Amino acid sequence: MDLLNEIKTRGTMVDGAIQNLMPIGEPDELYRAMRYLFDAGGKRLRPAALILSTEAVGGNPQDVIPAATAVELVHNFTLIHDDIMDADNLRRGLPAVHVKWGISGAILAGDTLYSKSFHILSKTNADAERMVECLTLMSITCTEICEGQWTDISFEKRNDVSEAEYMEMVKKKTAILYAASCKMGAILGSGTPAQAQALWDFGRLTGVGFQIYDDVLDLVTPEDVLGKIRGSDLMEGKQTLIAIHARDSNVKLDVFGKRDAAREEIDDALKMLEDSGSIDYARTTAHNFVAEGKAKLSILPESKAKDILLALADYMIERKF
Amino acid sequence: MDLLNEIKTRGTMVDGAIQNLMPIGEPDELYRAMRYLFDAGGKRLRPAALILSTEAVGGNPQDVIPAATAVELVHNFTLIHDDIMDADNLRRGLPAVHVKWGISGAILAGDTLYSKSFHILSKTNADAERMVECLTLMSITCTEICEGQWTDISFEKRNDVSEAEYMEMVKKKTAILYAASCKMGAILGSGTPAQAQALWDFGRLTGVGFQIYDDVLDLVTPEDVLGKIRGSDLMEGKQTLIAIHARDSNVKLDVFGKRDAAREEIDDALKMLEDSGSIDYARTTAHNFVAEGKAKLSILPESKAKDILLALADYMIERKF
Prior knowledge:
Two copies of one chain form a homodimer.
Chain A: H1 3-21, H2 28-40, H3 45-56, H4 65-86, E1 90-91, E2 94-95, H5 97-121, H6 128-155, H7 163-188, H8 193-220, H9 223-226, H10 232-235, H11 241-248, H12 263-275, H13 278-296, H14 304-316
Antiparallel strand pairs in A: 1-2
């Protein structure tokens, strides 16, 4: 199976629908700001997970394209507002929305995407009961993403973040949108409640694994592959599972929070984190989450879509960037 | 009839429900930021309009309290983000949310209120068809509010804004949430489509009247009553119906956009705007909108709630601040 091609096939369905679902309206500059990140690309992992979940419970992928578009737009909305908060000026190799349209423009572009997502979701072909379930799920999901982002920001002022707190933050900030995408796909595909729950758990567990593995990649990936400075999480003093494990193992990292650290210092820190087993610990934890997530799909009938979802889970912790 | 008491009675229903519908959750500081403006007060005009609309079509006000709370929280969300964009540091006599919790905190508090509003709306006692209609209406409404805010900001860079453009902006930025509140009240109260449409039009037209009259008050109200500097719209160079009428009448206002104008200059401008008929024009226009809005309610059966709605419409252009 060519996993990336299978994902791309589903992503293309969303790409083809955006012009119809969210055309450039008035004021046109607002709509250009809203479409900017979507048009800039992205892997479309969340729409793909939603569409594959529909297929895995026997539903028709064509019916859920608006819902798949909606979760991608929610993702875009979080990126736009997060980039303001984190003062990140680059996204997908382009100037961030707030760099191009100012802080006010970026706040409004994000806000409008937010409400458009609900509106586009409501255009999905489904009976009213399932639609209420999906719209409610979307609202709860967005609330939890915001809670996760707030917690992540609050971590910046602390050096006593526990592993449990980190896990809870990652679940909300990153994993919950995967979980909701999978569950919505199941609901809209007329899956059973047990199937919807299994796909929710699958999205949540593999989503956590995805984020933990992301923290590993930040340290071990060559910079030309990573596209940003290696060890940036360390230099920013970010609370990651690796940093928490190191602290609990009494590893003293001089580069932690040192924004002007030299490459040699990062290399030294990497060596220390390898010796302390912190990197292996994060890698193993990510693997365990993904394995647990994959096991949840055992209740689904065999299908090509199920195989792709399982391969997508592996991809989350095997990718190179 | 004691109009303000009737509004307060409905507002109190929402005040009494907030602790149950949106308790201080985790992270508690996020929830405190979200509750801050709500707890600071406000007239609760939108929740009152929603509840009265339910009553006016024969529905039970107790059934729509979550929906009424939701529209107030959407209003709070727009205030929080608007205050960031407009760099307004005071709101309801208190430091704005972004002053107390920083820009990031205010962005997130607004975002979370946004999704909570949809979630709380979904808790309203209604069949799935009506619920989908309300959730969809809310999403379209929020999109239009954002479009109106974007347009309003874009007016700052222009001096050729037409009356039609101003009207369209006010409709979206201010009136649409009144329209949606009234229509949701009708839908949830099991009103007919014609009743829902009439209440939508009522909210839209009186909402436009409300905003135009607000611009008049900014100029003519004594400062100790207004609670802010008189003529602030003029000094900020804001495009209002008054400013547009004056420009079209070839009135040259030296204070327009002059942020350090003295009180005497404002008084001179006020005199010129009275002589040119610009203030009377705005006042008359506001009255006409309200009269047109009230006429829409003729299809409703006689009831106390209808009388209160009609009185509320008059209040919008007769209030002193």
